[in-house]
Specification:
The chain has 3 domains: 1-45; 46-168, no CATH class; 196-268, no CATH class. Helix 1 (2-12) crosses helix 2 (21-28). Strand 5, helix 8 and strand 6 (190-193) form a beta-alpha-beta unit. The radius of gyration is 22 Å and the shape is globular. The protein is of the alpha+beta class and 268 residues long. The protein has helices spanning 2-12, 21-28, 34-41, 47-62, 125-128, 131-136, 148-161, 179-186, 211-214, and strands at residues 68-77, 87-91, 96-110, 113-122, 168-171, 190-193, 219-220, 223-224, 227-228, 232-233, 259-260, 264-265. The strands form 4 sheets. Strands 1, 2, 3, 4, 5 and 6 form a 6-stranded mixed β-sheet that branches. The protein has a two-stranded antiparallel sheet with strand order 7-10. Strands 8-9 form a two-stranded antiparallel sheet.
């Protein structure tokens, strides 16, 4: 079995564009995909244990105190209906709603390099609400529905619990408002999170405004860790939030640069 696992990994890391069982079998010199499929279907794996080994190896070789944890999801296009979590849903991999699986991933990025250290499979409600389907895919009965931001929080908490050294978290607008931000604030971690253009924020004084209302004027305010800078000129203001997105302060990493070249002084 150890030999088969080596051949399996060689196939995944090989030059073949498609990594199907048949393609991997051909690369390994097998007449069919059965041995390749046996590794995943009938072999015994501790996926979380393997994840921990990979994370430890990455930290050992790439760790720096000012590293960034990058959170993002990716889609895996599928044709069938039995792959765990598969459903018609949007994925940036295809740029549209299509039949796919979605996974939320965490990559560790430092000046020494970058590598993935964690993952979480997104299960739509069509799966978590169907016990028979979960059982057929060998998903534990206690598995409940979790949003993508919820999965991101789990990934971040695992990194914190394992004492992975990082100062910042970066993610797009899927994760920009809510539990992810709160988790990072409580952990005193810096973050750069996107927000949707329809998100409403409280500027601190006056009425609530959305970025769409600011498109009538090229002046925008830049908000970092709860502090608002004076308006600056920007050619394309769409996609920026203005005002405060949370009321509680946050401690910035001690090694943060004190000046942002693009937008002036960084708030402390």
């Amino acid at each position: 079995m150890q030999h088969l696992r080596t051949l399996f990994l060689d196939g995944l890391l090989g030059d073949e564009r498609r990594k199907t069982g048949w393609m991997r079998a051909e690369a390994a010199g097998d007449p069919g995909p059965w041995r390749q499929q046996a590794i995943l279907g009938r072999g015994r794996w501790d996926a979380d244990g393997l994840r921990d080994i990979v994370r430890e190896y990455v930290v050992e070789n790439l760790a720096t105190d000012d590293a960034v944890l990058v959170i993002d999801e990716t889609g895996f296009l599928k044709q069938g209906k039995t792959s765990c979590g598969v459903a018609r849903q949007y994925t940036g991999s295809a740029g549209k709603i299509t039949n796919c699986q979605i996974g939320v991933f965490a990559a560790y990025v430092s000046v020494r390099g970058h590598a993935s250290i964690d993952r979480a499979l997104y299960l739509p409600k069509s799966w978590t609400g169907d016990p028979a389907r979960l059982a057929a895919a060998h998903v534990p009965e206690v598995t409940a529905f979790a949003t993508k931001p919820g999965l991101a929080v789990e990934v971040i908490r695992r990194a914190l619990a394992a004492n992975v050294p990082f100062s910042w978290v970066a993610a797009d607008a899927v994760y920009g408002v809510g539990d992810v931000e709160g988790t990072l604030r409580r952990a005193c971690k810096g973050y750069v999170l996107g927000v949707k253009s329809t998100t409403i924020s409280a500027p601190g004084r006056g009425s609530l405004r959305s970025p769409a209302q600011h498109r009538r004027s090229p002046a925008i305010s830049i908000q970092v860790h709860g502090s608002v800078f004076p308006p600056v000129r920007a050619p394309k203001a769409r996609g920026f939030m203005t005002g405060r997105t949370a009321n509680s302060p946050i401690s910035m990493p001690t090694n943060t640069a004190r000046r942002n070249r693009g937008f002036g002084p960084v708030a402390s």
